[in-house]
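Quick illustration, no need to memorize.
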Amino acid sequence: MGKRTRYAPGTFCLVGLATPNPANAKSFYASLFGWQAEDLPAGPTGEVTLLRHSGHDVAILYRQTPEARAAGATPHWTSYISVENADATAARANQLGGAAVFREPFDVLDAGRVAAIRDPTGAIVSLWQPRSRIGAALVNDVSAWCWNQLATSDVERAKRFFAELFGWSYETDDRGHTTIINAGHRAAGIRQQTQNEGSAEPNWLPHFTVRNVDHAVHTAEQAYGRQLAPTIEVNSGRLAVITDPQGAAFGVFDGHTDP
């Protein structure tokens, strides 16, 4: 039910892991999600690994650069938003008070063109201009990515920025949680950072569907991952946040609706 052949502009389309130890990461996520890995050359960016489930692309993985590690960047998952023109969208982000993380967008061979932007609250998200690859070919299914959520220090400022950049609209429930609407569909969520997260940079967190959160947490811990906080009830399922052995955080969800 989660097979995709295109993404409307402004829709999250892919997630990617930057890690200092690709071999360890491949082993960890294979044990947790059953992913298969295929290494491909990616031009000047080095090598990228396609992560697949049941023959469908679900995510990518790449080695974190020495420059990024020297600058203090930790291993992390990055969320990608589909755009018609990465250069124009990055330039518009700058005009709106964001910042381009890279000096200019770059091509990933014939797969697509990528840029990264930092919103005015400090959270980084990537832009994907599709060419031969649209992004993930399987979403919202077991062992596939299902949701992205922004934890930010200033929800209203982030909402204004992304509404102008992508045309997003929003729905807010009685708990104060904001759902992003793009092209008539629920696209992601935004929440206020808690007091306990006061020292953390605003960030986007991807979530993956699993059959059972408790089993996923146990499997991750057996492979030297770590659960960051107690499992919580959300909508029709349960959610836990885990880090892989290198410290990259992500969510796992065992329901059938948006976390």
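The chain has five helices and 18 strands.
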